[in-house]
């Protein structure tokens, strides 16, 4: 443990009267750390907090180092965070009122104030399906456009049938209609429950998503790759998709990064006794 960080290497954010959870972290150019997640009393709200490089809360950010955003539906939470080259902070997650859930993106200025140039109020809700849509990961392209990945529910809420969804937003928060179909692409791996948990952008602009494909009682690592226009890259894997079976129960990909040589590293886990799954919904985490 780095004893110069926080107290004996640990820093804790406590919010009186609320439980709070950090789900994603990004480091700013000055070494400050911005954490996204959610706070909970009866309902859930989006949480954003910033710590100095020494692990102490940055009291100049938001209100005593934290910003709580109520998107307006019952439960809201952030699962991903990214920082633009201009320092603005973008978080992705979900806003839900059971059984309906929408993808939620929020953008803040460096000081924690909502960015009104992003969909007028700093918040964007996107409904892909009639019921369940979740963003679990975001990445920023060099041109400033925002890639979000997660999953969308196909069919009615009484039957669990999810697929990968990858979306691209313009810098003003509108969907980029030049990407996929109307700004998004849906990918299924077959008669299974599929969900993307992480997304990364290659140096050539291609987009890689990793997650899982589930077919009870098993699940496998699942990856898909897309061209910069959102069409699936059929030269990669089998028609743009790769699954990995660890031959022992259930497995799930949770994170993906691209090496400088272009090779892809995916991280996750597997277990022969319980389902390993990175939930996109704060309520289910």
Key phrases:
single chain, 285 residues, mainly beta, 4-stranded antiparallel sheet, 0% helix, disordered C terminus
Q: What would the average pLDDT be, to the nearest integer?
A: 90
Count up the helices: 0
Query: Low-confidence segments, ≥5 residues, pLDDT <50?
Result: 274-285
Radius of gyration: 18 Å
By secondary-structure content and strand pairing, the structural class works out as mainly beta
- Annotation, overall tally of beta strands: 18
Share of residues in strands: over 45%
- Quote the distance from N terminus to C terminus: 27 Å
H and E string = EEEEEEEEEEEEEEEEEE
Strand order of the largest sheet: 1-2-3-4
Oligomeric assembly: single chain
How would you sum up the major sheet?
4 strands, antiparallel
Helix content: under 10%
Backbone shape:
globular
Task: Describe what this molecule looks like in 3D.
- By secondary structure, the protein is an all-beta fold.
- Helix content is 0%, strand content 48%.
- The chain contains no helices and 18 strands.
- It has strands at residues 19-27, 33-40, 44-51, 66-69, 75-83, 89-97, 100-108, 123-126, 133-140, 146-153, 162-169, 184-187, 193-201, 207-215, 218-226, 241-244, 250-258, 264-271.
- Strands 1-2-3-4 form a four-stranded antiparallel sheet, with no helix packed on it. Strands 5-6-7-8 form a four-stranded antiparallel sheet, with no helix packed on it. The chain has a four-stranded antiparallel sheet with strand order 9-10-11-12, with no helix packed on it.
- β6 (89-97) and β7 (100-108) form a beta hairpin.
- It is globular and about 50 Å long.
